[in-house]
Amino acid sequence: QVQLQESGPGLVKPSGTLSLTCAVSGGSISSNNWWSWVRQPPGKGLEWIGEVYNSETGSPNYNPSLKSRVTISVDESKNQFSLRLTSVTAADTAVYFCARGADGYGYGHYWGQGTLVTVSS
Amino acid sequence: EIVLTQSPGTLSLSPGERATLSCTASESVSGRLLAWYQQKPGQTPRLLIYGASSRATGIPDRFSGSGSGTDFTLTISRLEPEDFAVYYCQQYFRSPNSFGQGTKLEIK
User: What pLDDT does residue A57 have?
Assistant: First the structure.
């Protein structure tokens, strides 16, 4: 059974960089799947951040609203993938989820439990 | 970017009743590449439906999805107490893989 686990700082200062990692167990990060990040501000809906297929296939896809600030990458040696979001503001405060697709598609078949990141000084 | 609009925003029904939730896309979602999720407070989204009408593993058959093109529907045939939650649709046909704003299904 595939399991995903997010980790990273729960508090980031304004103008700083948010960095999260999603550790994958029960499957290989190199498998033919889309690996994605989704976030949810407190009391609000889901927002798709972006996705990556694997380190050898093409470029990641990003939400245009975040594209200038976001990087998603894969670390095959550690069987994990990461999110980096620069120049954060209070509007980036949210629960961040990592997810994996299936059948070569990018819907959320497996999800991590989510991690709350607060942007505050 | 494909914009998904879910209606109604809130649906008030009683256990045992039938729920019909709608998801309308701003342009055609080719291949019926649309999913539905259920989310309860403090929990992770749970995949219910993918490919517009395929139930995910372990999802009861009272949940069904239908539709194509720009109009999609999630139907819960007979509501159980545990079905009251927020439901989201997501298209994964074209990046960015957008979500709808959600429909809150509440107990009447």
Answer: 67
